[in-house]
What we know:
This protein is of the alpha/beta class. Helix content is 38%, strand content 24%. The model has no long low-confidence stretch (mean pLDDT 95).
Amino acid sequence: MKSIALKENKDFRRMYYRAKSLASPCLVTYAMKNRTGETRVGITTGKKIGGAVQRNRARRVIRAAFSQLEGRINGSYDIVFVARTRTTQVKMQAVLADMEKQLAGLGVIK
Length: 110
């Protein structure tokens, strides 16, 4: 099942206030059940991470890691991934391992 992008600022703000979250040195994950019947995913990379090249790399790495876990999601969720400074320095496999641990901890994947 393909996920839809979260784009609205109000959706991100709602996630930061209401959703459950888990953090690691290279990724913060917020997850919350939704009633839309589909999974919606948002990725944020702040200016603290670096220039446009570093931020784009962080987004690319997170997107690649999530694409490998996408099929294992049970139910419909809103998920927001927040990149950290370390995200730009690690390989996709490291982000994937963190992401898998966090999504399992939040009950999103089996």
